[in-house]
Design goal:
Chain A has twelve helices and 14 strands. With 345 residues, chain A is of the alpha/beta class. Chain A has a seven-stranded parallel sheet with strand order 3-2-1-4-5-7-6, with helices on both faces. A seven-stranded mixed sheet of chain A has the order 9-10-8-11-14-13-12. In chain A, helix 1 crosses helix 12. The radius of gyration of chain A is 20 Å and the shape is globular. The two termini of chain A are 34 Å apart. The relative contact order of chain A is 0.14. Chains in contact: A-B, A-C, A-D, B-C, B-D, C-D.
Chain lengths: 345, 345, 345, 345
């Protein structure tokens, strides 16, 4: 049994990690930390865990975790993860960071969109944790930067077309919609039930921090710098992200050829499900699972391809992908403990 | 008092018309018809009306309505409205048709997207009922084709930019999201609570019937044929449409210049509210009102303008706009009976 | 035009008052106060008001309001209203307090359930603002304690049976369910979208502060001390309270006799709607309106009567009832400005 | 591996059974039947199953299932199950019927509340499938009548008090609230999103068919005939039932004694979780799991005990309990394949 710890586990991402790791056949969650809920039983904060675990949140030091665990997940806000990651990495642990701190390879880009980076040297050591793109690197990785929720679905949605060179790289638009858990469990007016319920709105148009992360990865695939228009929206659901991605086709290519490109690209990927022609994804079909569903339509009237991708932002968009990365890093089958069927309805 | 009738009033659009007309100071609803609910009190089908009206649904013939009303609203499915509209028009009534039957000027386009047209001669007599574009025509109109819900918000959102010639007319993408009442009160699996709740999905990508209606009107404004990519989605809310519209700017134009273009275009429009720079619309801010809120962002990184428009699909997207058209046709102030403040939360 | 002020207007109750008063034909809202949003336009905090009002929140002193208004609504938390009410009352204004501070006639009961009372002398001057019970008193009142949301629906639901003496007064159970706006716009974990959505729970079982208010009024009607079991629950909707009330029938009385009792009791009440036998209320049928819908069922198998009442907690349960009281206090028809038809769906 | 079949699997209960059985380590789902979806892949009807199973719905005869399976689940409407159950039972299969057809021991009571019974002889052979009450019987059972969703939560909630004789058996009131999946996937107006969303209502007050089932089981525990008042309500959530149960305490008994009674009664029950004093259940804490959470409060002011129980209606209220029964019938540990942690948020 792998001994694992979760550092900063009081938010929705942390408790989702705990749900997945308790159900994982090869892991033993030794410590979960939280200053806010220090010494409080997990089941008091999250009653869903009653009768399942006796774990309490601890205000543990990194040393505690280093001495008791082989793997640590950092579920901290950006800016906080970079403060503790170096110590865990230096101790030789396997580290999976769910924050944004080590996702951007160019420190100056990070500092432009986020804040000053206090561990710039460590940035180059991190492997970007999107297994469908970097599986082999992840098998040998000791330090993984787990992708953001929006980037995961958008990159998986458009990667095959970029790889194949069949779209105009300057034409990409990602219109994304996320459930409310994407904002975390912070107390803010915009997250109150009465403000979200029966509402729908865009936010941070063309200025969301996930933009450079998406552009970095799309650029690596296309081997050229890429800029996209990225517009996130807030859906009144708890979980789920749906991305509708638009791009101009370079040349005459049929819908069935495009399906072929996707099937080839994702041939061995267990969590990417290409919807049959005529079918489209729904966030309710991936809720609670680690799947990314992708639908493809060619708009022949305008010469565009329209891709729709759906994930559960807390699973494939965060904690499930972190477990998938852990599996790869630890030599386990990639889907171990991740075979949940979406809860519907 | 204007004597009005609603022909085919059993759906959500019909009852919303009734709500607005009962609250209207200058109208008297004389008849509402429904075969399905013949002789049933409105308040039995829609308990919200209890103590407000004693009206019963009647299975009235057009002649009944012609003899008792000055204005008739047709709230029938497409294909049905074209069967009765000629009789009402021939009788000299003021007719407002909420179906799609008379919105498309080119009958062959109608027949391509809908069904065979049985009253093609009448098509040219209909005025397209978008007051912000055709106010003067509507003041003299006797037969109005009330716009579709998606077209209303999309056309209002992008019209000023097309008028001004500042965008590439081949670059328009409308990513739209509608609440569930847009599908009407028909019994279908996709409209069940458990299928919609906690879900979010796209549908009819690049193939929705509102596409040619949007393109017709955008083309008239731009004075050139226009094709757009239009993708509707289903939001788990009862009311509201939010459109996110993308277009490439033709030349260097600042965000504040664009705000100026919108303010000039909508100077005298009572129901269009331009959000201040930095603010964005939310469907919850227009719910129950006849307003269309518009937000504007220039994405300088990609040279695109991104417009967000929000309406209540049952009010500005259907019944409220129909009343606005009636006001114009009957010489009343345009906003009579339409001063509802959105119900929030 | 009546000049009115709203003191402490930043919450959901305050903005709902504003919605109703702007639509009221005989009132002019002169001032609305808020420390938190001092000098901010109402439409920035609540975008629904854009284009409708230019009012800004002001940090006004009571003197300001006294010099400019005839009527003041206090929309403050309990404990705060009692600090300013005396000054407004002493100045001869008409004062409607939406807090709990002056609802309980017995100061010791207030202090047991709430906090120390700093204006005990004023308590006896307040009229309990439930027009269906105290209409004549309210016509002459200058200081009104507006009822709580739960008490309004429960008292209206059970009052006729108590008046008539046909139930065992020791057997009353009120199982109540409220939408999330009942908790106000405070930042607390339990009010976050992700905590409320797809959830349902009871809270403060047999210990909610509205209990003594309900018991006081039921006791006055029955002319005997009454204790009830009151259990509130949280529904994942924005607005609405539904109360299911159980009582043992004293003697053999038929359902139709009970309907007769209700119709007689509420004969002249414009906002109470008795559902026809076999029909039951739904919070969605009163949303946005000042109505209280009441359904009645006799459970012959157990000798109980079961009453269901539904209101919009922000309207009949707070701001609408406050306007109804203002109408009575000012000699206006009771339903002036309160003829909204529920927004459905 | 146990070979199992699901007969009549197209509804929400059937697909939930499939979710649980695919995840069960000791079962192999051989056949699932549906006339409506004959030859359609499960993943086309329920996309959540894509990549998980290749099963297609079949229009199989009972003989097919008898020859290929050891266990069959009947997920048919009442009235239909009684037609096929005899053949399966006669063939010696283990049969778990999720309908109401064999729950009521007194055929005349069944016929009063449901319809004519065509297999009255088989009624006495069925074991009522509530493992927390009949575990030993179920270990030897070949034919199980799986309980209704409301009865499960209500019986589990009140059983310990009845067993212990500490409440007045004539005083029981069950005020229950269910999510929309309880109505199944039938096309009816009342199940449309727009009718359920933002609504809350009671239905079938004191006349719901689950009443005699609840009374039968409560009477067996108390060893006396019991009548209750049972009022179901519809919550706008997909899953979950919360029951608030009221009863008069017979004599002076403290809250802590009552907690003792519950802990003793449910000592060995893996799926019943007694909430700590001061804590109360929430349907969101059991969603997707087989747990029944129970909260207990004594209302000393009125001499009542108030019990709140929460289950997922599709799991412990239907399919999960069916699997729990299968485990017992087949000699497997009771919780095999049922260790899901609730999906929250």
């Amino acid at each position: 049994m792998l001994k694992v710890g979760i550092y900063g586990a009081s938010g929705y991402t942390g408790q989702e990690l705990l749900r997945l790791l308790i159900g994982h056949p090869d892991t033993d969650v030794v410590t979960i930390t939280s200053r806010k809920f220090k010494n409080v039983a997990v089941s008091e904060v999250y009653p869903a865990f009653a009768s399942t675990t006796d774990l309490k949140f601890a205000d543990s030091s990194p040393e505690n975790i280093i001495s008791s665990c082989e793997v640590v997940f950092l579920a901290l806000p950006h800016g906080e993860a970079m403060k503790v990651a170096p110590e865990f990495v230096a101790a030789g642990m396997k580290v999976i960071d769910l924050s944004a701190d080590f996702r951007l390879r160019d420190v100056s880009v990070y500092e432009e969109w986020y804040t000053r980076h206090t561990s710039p040297d460590l940035v180059q050591k991190a492997v970007y944790g999107l297994p469908e793109l970097y599986r082999d690197d992840l098998k040998n990785a000791r330090f993984v930067a787990n992708p953001g929720c929006y980037p995961t679905g958008i990159i998986l949605g458009i990667a095959p077309l970029l790889k194949d060179g069949c779209i105009d790289t300057s034409s990409i638009i990602a219109d994304s919609k996320s459930g409310a858990s994407g904002a975390g469990r912070e107390l803010q007016f915009g997250s109150l039930f009465c403000e979200v319920n029966e509402g729908f709105r865009a936010y941070k148009i063309a200025s969301h921090r996930h933009t450079p992360e998406i552009e970095q990865e799309l650029g690596r695939i296309a081997n050229t710098a890429i800029k996209i228009s990225f517009v996130p929206h807030l859906i009144p659901v708890s979980r789920g992200i749906l991305n509708t991605i638009y791009a101009d086709l370079q040349n005459d290519i049929s819908e069935s050829e495009i399906f072929g490109i996707y099937e080839k690209f994702y041939g061995d990927a267990k969590f990417v499900r290409i919807c049959k022609p005529g079918s489209l994804p729904n966030v309710s079909s991936v809720r609670g699972s680690n799947n990314c569903d992708i639908g493809i339509v060619v708009d022949g009237r305008t010469g565009r391809v329209i891709i729709v991708s759906a994930i559960d932002n807390l699973v494939k968009g965060a904690s499930g992908q972190a477990v998938q990365n852990m599996n790869l890093m630890c030599g386990l089958p990639e889907d171990t403990g991740l075979d949940h069927i979406s809860l519907f309805p």
